Amino acid sequence: MKATALLTAALLLISVIPAKSFGNTPITVLVANSVTNPPNQTYSTFVVFRGILLGGLTRLQASNQGFGFTYTEDPNYGPFLQSVNGLAGSAEERTYWQLLVKKPNNSIIIPDVGIGCYIPAANDQIILKYSTY
Ligand code: B12
Q1: How many domains is the chain built from?
Q2: What Rg value do the Cα atoms of the chain yield, rounded?
Q3: Ligand 1 pocket check for 57: Cβ under 6 Å
Q4: Which PANTHER family match (predicted)?
Q5: pLDDT digits (tens, 9 = 90+) for 75-117
C-alpha cells in the first residue's frame, strides 16, 4: 500500500514537473520613443524556460513581425541594445534604448541588468524605450 502511494506520488511529480519547467514563457515587446513620440508598436514572442531576453528578441526578429534590433558587446556587461527598428542610440545626442518591464500587476520596473541577463517572467511586457540621458 505504502509502495503504491509512493509510486503514484512519483508518477505525479514526473508528469507535473516537465510541464512547469520546460514550457515556454510568453512575453510582449512594446517599442516606445520618448524623444519624438511616434505611435508605440507591440509584438508577441516567448522565451524558453528561464531563457534570457536576448533569446526572445532574437526569436521575435526571426518571426517576421517587422521587429529588428542590433546590439554591441560590452566587455564587462555583455550585450548593449544599440538599435531598435532601425533607430540607434547615440553618444553625441545622448540617446539610448532604455529597458523597462511592465509586470502583469501593471507595476513598471527598471531592470538593473541588460538584455543578456534579464530573464523574463510569464506575461512580462518588455518596454524598449528610446530615451535621453
Ligand atoms: C553611465 C551609465 C549608463 C549610460 C551609458 C552611456 C554613457 N555614455 O554614459 C546609459 C544611460 C546609456 C546606460 C544605460 C543602461 N545601463 Co548603465 N550604467 C552607467 C554607469 C552609471 C556608468 C558607466 C560608465 O560610464 N563607466 C565608466 C566608463 C569609462 O567605462 P565604460 O566601460 O566605457 O562604460 C560603458 C559601459 O558601462 C556601458 N554601459 C552602461 N550601462 C550599460 C548596461 C549594459 C547592460 C551594458 C552591456 C553596457 C552598459 O556604457 C558605458 C559608456 O560607453 C554604470 C554604473 C557604474 N557606476 O559603473 C551603469 C551600469 C553599467 N548600467 C547598468 C544598466 C543595467 C543599464 C541599463 C540596462 C538600464 C536599463 N534598464 O535600461 C541600460 C542599458 C540598456 C541597453 N540599451 O542595453 C548596470 C549594468 C549591470 C549589469 N550587470 O548588467 C550598471 C552597472 C548600473 C547598475 N544598475 O548597477 N548606462
Answers
A1: 1
A2: 19
A3: no
A4: TRANSCOBALAMIN II (PTHR10559:SF18), TRANSCOBALAMIN-1/GASTRIC INTRINSIC FACTOR (PTHR10559)
A5: 999 999 999 999 999 999 999 999 999 999 999 999 999 999 9
CA distance to 8, 10, 71, per residue, from 88 (Å): 56, 52, 10
Helix/strand/coil for 112: coil
52: nearest Cα among 78, 13, 16: 78
User: Is the distance from the beta carbon of residue 133 to the nearest atom of ligand 1 less than 6 Å?
Assistant: yes
In a domain, 122, yes or no: yes
**Ligand 1, from 109, 112, 119, 129: best to mutate by most atoms within 8 Å of Cβ?**
112
**Domain range for residue 78?**
24-132
Residue 34 lies in a domain: yes
CATH classification of the domain holding 109: 2.170.130.30
Residue 13 maps to a domain: no
For ligand 1, atom 11, name the residue with the nearest CA. Answer: 133
Calculate the average pLDDT of the chain: 91
